[in-house]
Write a structure and sequence with these properties.
heterotrimer; A mainly alpha (about 300); B alpha/beta (about 325); C mainly alpha (about 325); B: about 325 residues; alpha/beta; eight-stranded mixed β-sheet; 12 helices; about 30% helix; C: about 325 residues; mainly alpha; 13 helices; about 80% helix
């Protein structure tokens, strides 16, 4: 029935309580669930794989010109010009290439941030949930403080201090992903601990803390992965926001965010400079959201 | 509601050959199988059986409270009118108004965010056109009728402020709000302690007499039926297996299953620490096809015939129906 | 109820202190000499040193933190390095703008989400529901700055129905004030509303399928619609409040970018321009206030929760 607020002072964005019960559409039967499995999991998974391929592998093997260092002479070529499928921008850079390399930058950052969140946050949360007591409380309070700041505000403040660039952006955004995933890991650990408690007690007396973590971690991993996928969508948008504000990836290096920002001025004349990276961003985020939601559905139905 | 040409002393509710299947992702579970019984006006029928025997499902089928995965066939006639297949709108006029239901767990059956008085007046407003003030007064009347102490003050209480017994009284008040002709009490006292249980049952009996209401009393407790029911219908694995007026049933138990249920009731006359006779075995899995009598795996009187052919549910003695090839007390036990 | 609230406040206090600490650390301790950045690349070491002393940057970190905290507790947040204006008054001018934006966005989001969720939950799997779910998934996935640009393109540039930029305070005409807020509020509200719709709908469906009081209501003869609106919704409201509280932080965060795009003089915009001009006291103040507001919002949500849930408000059963 009614869900009381979480016991921490500041609930966070990825809290399962915030996401609510998973939006399983109906209680309808078997026919549709297979269709939904295909639509909900395989299609977005395939699209994500395609996007990753295009952004990371294709520029290495295919005819993709450099995204920077274009000649002014080539500027503002329309789409479908020879050699430039999507035309060129104001400084003569190939738009298709910028899209791919921009995607690579955005995805690199997002995946790194999520990975850091999973590893650091996941371990931290699992440790907290497992060990309990004052150590858990201290960890949770510290995480509370981090979560109290709106993700973008924190990221902006940190990114500004550190300066622009890919690595610094990863740092800045990790301040969001680590606490968010740590929370999830802790909640999941508490649940798993209840279930496996008897098993754990049966294991060789005082199983070493680390050994037991090795038992807990595999159990919380599915739940963590699900939220990590949902988090990817959030992080990509955040990175876009940082780059948009001029704090992340700096021009001339492309990122979907700074491409959208620089396309603003040409919005009326040539909307494609905004629409193309926006569409790329949108499709990527939709896929991650779909994947995360479908997995959440699956997993909470068990 | 018009009584379609049924004499005033005809049965209030007539269930014939009721069958309820649940379709869950490819599997079909037969929860109720060819159930038939009759509820006369102002009488109490005890519907007795183990968990999962279909007593709750069959009762919810009466007022169409089953989930969408249920398929109901057969006939349920109330005052001569067929209820199965009735449009949702017409069924809503029956629910609460002609036929009301009281459920098992009063803690969860009341909306925790609405004051109990308003939950009662809601039932009143749904079936009659009265002012808020009139509904309020009527609700307080009902609360007094169900012997809720300090009724007028309790009107503004929330469910969590009441004890289990009081909540159940509120549920009964809600059920009575529409002045129903039939009340179905689905394990209404199971979740209560023994003393409260007795009080609630007394209340129900008293109300039934006063209001001339028929009562279907669903329970797993045969002893309860013995005290309060006029007629008992024993169910097993979705089927009716024995039915008779209470006295006749207890004096001449025929179905081995009923016999086993009776034996399982702890008796005061037994010496202390005498072991309780439980009914051995488990009820059958209703998702698989049943061949033969469903009770055969657990029956002391079982023969090969029982396993192959399900016995029909028929009136074998005046006013006493059962479904068994080898009823107790009529034949010698098979060699 | 008071005990419940008291406990929540008690938990919030160390977090609040942590917020002050983290704010200070982030703004002051991270690499990069503030004085140097203020003066630029061409500054001489002496100039940097002079400014550092003037700003008190030479003192040890903890001392500076102590001073700042002390000032904070006595109500002073320092003065802007750029304009000299007190930070508190700057915040006092900009906070109301952000509040209005946030409130308006929340209003739009809730007003749309509730009926859509109700209609969806009424017939799960039906056409309305499927369309709503698809659209809401799409809406969730649109970055709000992207949406902002697209809205500006259509409504301001192409159709010229609404202004693209700017701000008119309420006392200069409420209608005008709203006009400038519509596009920014919608940019924020869309993904919120999609999120709330899905969440509320899932909660409602869970109530309808799992809760016994729903069966009781139906047994009374109530229609499905009545059960939804009068019974299930009252219980699902709590989930919505929780979601609102949880999202408040994010909501505040996006004002940074939305205010920037639309030129709204709110605290987000102030933060960004203070960052650009290296106006440290303003950055400190703004970052701190963000954290503070999130904590307050959660406390208010707890308050609402306690006020609305009869079980919390009226305590336990009288047996």
């Amino acid at each position: 029935m009614a869900v009381p607020p979480t016991e921490t002072a500041v609930p966070g964005m990825l809290d399962p309580a915030a996401l609510g019960p998973s939006s399983a559409p109906t209680t309808a039967g078997g026919r549709f669930s297979r269709l939904r499995a295909i639509g909900g999991i395989w299609v977005p998974a395939f699209l994500v794989a395609a996007i990753l391929f295009l952004c990371f592998l294709w520029p290495l093997i295919g005819p993709v010109p450099s995204p920077t260092g274009g000649s002014i002479l080539n500027s503002n070529l329309p789409s479908f010009s020879p050699g430039h499928l999507l035309g060129t921008d104001a400084t003569g850079n190939d738009e298709w290439s910028r899209l791919l390399y921009g995607g690579r930058a955005s995805l690199e950052i997002s995946m790194a941030v999520t990975a850091i969140g999973l590893i650091v946050g996941g371990l931290l949360g699992a440790f907290a949930g497992y060990v309990g007591g004052w150590r858990e409380s201290v960890i949770m309070r510290v995480l509370d403080v981090l979560i109290a700041f709106p993700a973008l505000v924190l990221a902006v403040a940190i990114a500004e201090r550190l300066g622009p660039g890919e690595v610094h952006t990863i740092w800045a955004l990790s301040f969001f992903s680590v606490p968010a995933l740590a929370r999830i890991a802790r909640a999941a650990t508490l649940r798993v601990r209840e279930q496996n408690y008897i098993v754990a007690a049966g294991l060789s007396g005082s199983g070493h803390g680390r050994t037991l973590l090795r038992h807990i971690v595999p159990n919380i991993l599915p739940e963590l992965m699900t939220f990590a996928l949902l988090g990817m969508g959030i992080v990509i948008v955040l990175e876009g926001a940082l780059s948009f504000l001029g704090l992340g990836i700096q021009p001339p290096n492309p990122s979907w965010g700074n491409m959208i920002a620089s396309g603003q001025g040409l919005l009326s004349a040539q909307p494609k400079f905004v629409l193309l990276p926006s569409a790329a961003l949108f499709i990527t985020v939709v896929c991650f959201n779909l994947l995360g939601e479908s997995l959440r559905e699956r997993w909470s139905a068990q | 509601m018009s009584a379609n040409g049924v004499a005033p002393d005809g049965p209030l509710l007539e269930i014939t050959d009721l069958r309820v299947d649940f379709r869950q992702g490819g599997r079909i579970t037969r929860a109720v199988d060819h159930l038939s019984y009759v509820v006369p006006r102002a009488r109490t029928i005890g519907l007795i059986g183990e968990s999962g025997c279909g007593k709750t499902v069959s009762s919810r089928a009466i007022i169409s409270l089953l989930p969408a995965s249920a398929r109901v066939t057969g006939s349920i006639r109330f005052e001569g009118q067929e209820l199965l297949g009735l449009s949702e709108r017409k069924m809503r006029a029956v629910r609460g108004n002609q036929i009301a239901m009281v459920f098992q767990d009063p803690a969860r059956s009341l909306n925790p965010t609405v004051r109990i008085g308003l939950q009662i007046t809601e039932a009143i407003h749904l079936h009659s056109d009265v002012s808020k003030a009139e509904a309020h007064d009527r609700a307080v009347e009902l609360m007094e009728l169900v012997r809720l102490p300090a009724a007028a003050e309790r009107f503004r209480n929330y469910p969590h402020q009441l004890s289990g017994g009081m909540r159940q009284r509120v549920m009964i008040a809600i059920a009575l709000a529409g002045e129903p002709k039939l009340l179905i009490a689905d394990e209404a006292t199971t979740a209560l302690d023994v003393t409260t249980q007795a009080q609630i049952m007394e209340l129900l009996r008293d109300l039934q007499e006063r209001l001339g209401m028929a009562l279907i009393m669903i329970s797993h407790d045969l002893g309860l039926a013995a005290s309060f029911a006029d007629e008992v219908m024993v169910m097993y694995a979705g089927r009716g297996v024995e039915r008779a007026p209470t006295r006749k049933l207890f004096e001449h138990v025929r179905m081995p299953y009923t016999r086993a249920l009776l034996d399982a009731i702890p008796r005061l006359e037994n010496p202390p620490h005498a072991s309780l006779t439980a009914v051995p075995g488990q009820p059958p899995d209703l998702a698989s096809e049943q061949v033969g009598c469903p009770f055969s795996p657990r029956c002391p009187n079982v023969t090969a015939k029982c396993r192959e052919h399900a016995p029909p549910f028929e009136e074998q003695e005046p006013d006493h129906r059962w479904a068994c090839w080898h009823p107790c007390g009529l034949e010698k036990a098979p060699a | 109820m008071l005990r419940f609230l008291g406990r929540r406040i008690l938990v919030a206090i160390p977090v609040l202190w942590g917020v002050t600490f983290l704010t200070f650390i982030v703004v002051n301790h991270l690499p990069g000499n503030a004085a140097q950045q203020l003066l630029g690349i061409n500054a001489t070491p002496q100039e940097i040193h002079q400014l550092s002393v003037r700003l008190g940057l030479e003192k040890p970190l903890l001392t500076r933190y102590g001073n700042w905290l002390h000032d904070l507790v006595t109500g002073s947040l320092g003065h802007s390095l750029a304009s000299g204006q007190s930070v508190t008054s700057i915040l006092g001018q900009t906070l109301p703008v952000t509040f209005e934006l946030v409130a308006f966005s929340l209003l739009i989001a809730v007003v749309v989400a509730v009926p859509v969720a109700l209609l969806s939950a009424r017939r799960p799997g039906g056409i309305f529901d499927r369309v709503a779910m698809v659209l809401s998934m799409a809406g969730l996935s649109i970055a709000n700055y992207v949406l902002a640009l697209i809205l500006v393109y259509f409504f301001a540039v192409r159709l010229n129905w609404l202004p693209a930029l700017g701000w008119v305070p309420p006392d200069h005409g409420f209608g005008n004030n709203i006009k400038y807020l519509i596009l920014p509020a919608v940019s924020i509200a869309l993904s919120l509303l999609c999120f709330y719709t899905r969440q509320l709908r899932a909660d409602l469906i869970q109530q309808l399928h799992g809760e016994d009081y729903v069966t009781t209501a139906r047994a009374k003869g109530a229609s499905s619609w009545r059960v939804l609106t009068h019974h299930a919704l009252r219980n699902s409201v709590f989930g919505l409040i929780t979601a609102l509280a949880l999202n408040f932080g994010t909501l505040l965060g996006v004002t940074v970018i939305i205010e920037e795009i639309f030129g709204l003089p709110g605290i987000g915009h102030e933060l960004l321009s203070a960052i650009n001009s290296r106006d440290i006291p303003v950055v400190e103040g703004a970052v701190f206030v963000f954290g503070l507001m999130v904590i307050l919002a959660n406390l208010i949500a707890d308050l609402l929760y306690a006020a609305l849930d009869p079980r919390v408000k009226y305590g336990s059963a009288t047996d």
